[in-house]
Amino acid sequence: MKLNEVQRAAQEQFARQSHRYGQGHILENVDDVRAAAEQMTLPARARVLDVATGGGHTGLYFASVGHDVTLADLAQPMLDRAARLAAERGLKVTTRLHAAEQFPDADASFDLVTCRVAAHHFSSPADFIRETARVLKPGGWFLLIDGSIEDHQPEAEEWLHQVEKFRDPSHHRFLTPGGWSDLCKRHGLAVKQAALAPFKQPDLNWYFDTAATSPENRQKVLDLVAHAPPSARQLFGLGEEDGKIVWWWQRLTLIATKRGNQ
Ligand SMILES: C[S@@+](CC[C@H](N)C(=O)[O-])C[C@H]1O[C@@H](n2cnc3c(N)ncnc32)[C@H](O)[C@@H]1O
After folding, report:
1. pLDDT digits (tens, 9 = 90+) for 195-212
2. Regarding beta strands 47-51 and 68-73, do their DSSP bridges make them parallel or antiparallel, or are they unpaired?
3. Could you give the 3-state DSSP secondary structure of residue 88?
4. DSSP label at residue 121
5. Is the pLDDT score of 20 beyond 90?
6. Is the Cα dihedral 42, 48, 49, 55 positive or negative?
7. What separation in Å is there between the alpha carbon of 230 and the centre of ligand 1?
8. Residue among 57, 68, 61 at smallest CA distance from 93
9. Which residue among 73, 97, 249 is best mutated to probe the pocket of ligand 1, counting the most ligand atoms within 8 A of its Cβ?
10. Element (H, E) at 258
11. Protein residues with CB under 6 Å of any ligand 1 atom
12. How far apart are the C-alpha atoms of 103 and 94, rounded to whole Å?
């Protein structure tokens, strides 16, 4: 697999940190996925591709309700862990090692493509959306869940970008709902919903540990927090609770369908 610099950084980061994304991780709670699934009409046994599957939580949810799921990621240790978790739960899934910017699958081969809390690492969101649209069957569904930020908030967006980049240098960029919706429309995906919901980050130190942030970069983030502009302070509800730094992420849930009938 030939990778660019951004993809390689993500691969190294997640291969190293894969042990943190399995059972007990905050992403194991799939209430957001379940709620989104209720808004999509899928065949009884849909073909599902979960891109950048990480610990596998999203794909395994769809496997647990009877769908035929492929888990894809560019970090092999992540796929190994997700496959182990599937086996422990008695679920059958296929795993595939590939990047989110180019899929090995034939055109029109899936009823649903999912991607949760990963797209901010992708070197080219446009390539990811183009590939998603290509492999979806006409009438198929796309579910994207990711950290995001309100449209038209450049100062807060830049502040958050710096925080995320110091915390985890493999972070690439959060896109706004408008940014993702434009990409979808350009590639023939009709957006049914692009909604932000606040999602609490309960402890900055936990968030550092998840990414194995270096001591120097932790200090840089703490300095950014101490000097956050009012726009960011207000938008993210930055504050302290029981000695812990907390804030609220905006989590985007975007649901789209590929134009055309199945
Ligand atoms: C936070 S985890 C994903 C969480 C998971 N989707 C869930 O719902 O629990 C992020 C994953 O994105 C993967 N990733 C990052 N950049 C990628 C890329 N360009 N192509 C494919 N996978 C990528 C990482 O290897 C990692 O496993």
Report:
1. 999 988 889 998 899 889
2. parallel
3. helix
4. G
5. no
6. positive
7. 32
8. 68
9. 73
10. strand 244-258
11. 7, 10, 14, 21, 27, 52-55, 57-58, 73-75, 78, 99-101, 116-118, 121-122
12. 14
Over residues 33-84, the pLDDT tens digits come to: 999 999 999 999 999 999 999 999 999 999 999 999 999 999 999 999 999 9
pLDDT of residue 16: 84
List b or e across 119-133, with b for residues whose CB sees 16 or more CB atoms inside 10 angstroms.
bbbbbbbebbbbbbb
Interatomic CA distance for residues 158 and 130, integer angstroms: 26
Distance between CA atoms of 237 and 235, rounded to whole angstroms?
Answer: 6
Mean pLDDT of 107-136: 98
Copy the structure tokens of residue 261: 């009938």
Q: How many CB atoms lie within 10 A of CB 207?
A: 21
Distance of alpha carbon 57 from alpha carbon 33, whole angstroms: 9
Helix (H, G, I), strand (E, B) or coil at 123: coil
